[in-house]
Amino acid sequence: MKKFLKYFFIFLFIFCPKMKKENSEEYYKILRERMVKEQIERRGIKDQRVLKAMREVKRHLFVPEAYRDESYNDYPLPIGEGQTISQPFIVALMTSLLEPKESDKVLEIGTGSGYQAAVLSLLVKEVYTIEIIEKLAKDAEKRLKELGYHNVKVKWGDGFEGWEEYAPFDKIIITCALPYIPKPLKEQLKEGGKICAPIERDGFQVLSVFTKKNNELIEKVCDYVRFVPMRGRIEIEEKEDK
Ligand code: SAH
């Protein structure tokens, strides 16, 4: 009996963590499926490629461990350094507004956790993403690499300047709120390309899609949103404007 108990506990010790891990992956898959159906499809996102990508990317691996079980809920979550990962619906909405094509080269400003970049990477050829907070940039770079998102390149820097080395881009997505589109970003966008960004206006933020036509950005306002503000050079430029 004693021997049996001994082997029983050894068995539990070896296999339980593994079983728990496999079970939780199944559990998160169910949560992901529910998230897509109830928060995204139900609110009118129809692009099947976007829905597929949202079903695939393991959002729970992009949030701090303490928030894993909440990661598929209908709200943003803290990712450290006072920043947040956007609500799943907003990620899906911004992704579908970009109308991603397999041949696209996309620039993202505001890497954060790397989640938005991971979703995009399944839909386009290459993703270039810039993050101003060093720790977030380094963590996201490591995470994306470990999870196998090899068509994403991360840079620590100020997104205001864009990423001249890899320009021009077919699409640009900005995931921090800003008062206007900085000139370098407009210049690094291809003619006919799109920028999706939360724009600060009259004390609110609107989610806008800009299309570059004859070197001008034509704006279409889509929705009201709430994002963390852009930091860095834009704050100085803004002050200089006033
Ligand atoms: N897309 C992210 C969430 C973005 S939160 C995700 O999927 O997790 C907004 C991010 O923009 C924050 O991490 C913030 O540090 C970053 N940010 C703010 N100003 C920036 C700037 N000038 N250049 C690059 N990143 C910036």
TrEMBL record:
Keyword annotations from UniProtKB, A to Z: Cytoplasm, Methyltransferase, S-adenosyl-L-methionine, Transferase
Transmembrane segments: none
Alphabetical GO biological process terms: methylation; protein repair
Catalytic site positions: 86
Major subcellular location class: cytoplasm
One Pfam family in the UniProt entry: PCMT
Record-linked SUPFAM superfamilies: S-adenosyl-L-methionine-dependent methyltransferases (SSF53335)
GO cellular component terms listed in the entry, alphabetical order: cytoplasm
E.C. numbers: 2.1.1.77
InterPro entries: PCMT, SAM-dependent_MTases_sf
Intracellular or extracellular location(s): Cytoplasm
Catalytic reaction list: [protein]-L-isoaspartate + S-adenosyl-L-methionine = [protein]-L-isoaspartate alpha-methyl ester + S-adenosyl-L-homocysteine
GO MF, one example: protein-L-isoaspartate (D-aspartate) O-methyltransferase activity
Enzyme kind, highest EC tier: transferase
Biological role: Catalyzes the methyl esterification of L-isoaspartyl residues in peptides and proteins that result from spontaneous decomposition of normal L-aspartyl and L-asparaginyl residues. It plays a role in the repair and/or degradation of damaged proteins.
Record-stated family: Belongs to the methyltransferase superfamily. L-isoaspartyl/D-aspartyl protein methyltransferase family.
Entries under PANTHER family matching the protein: PROTEIN-L-ISOASPARTATE O-METHYLTRANSFERASE, PROTEIN-L-ISOASPARTATE(D-ASPARTATE) O-METHYLTRANSFERASE
Protein name: Protein-L-isoaspartate O-methyltransferase
Protein source organism: candidate division WOR-3 bacterium
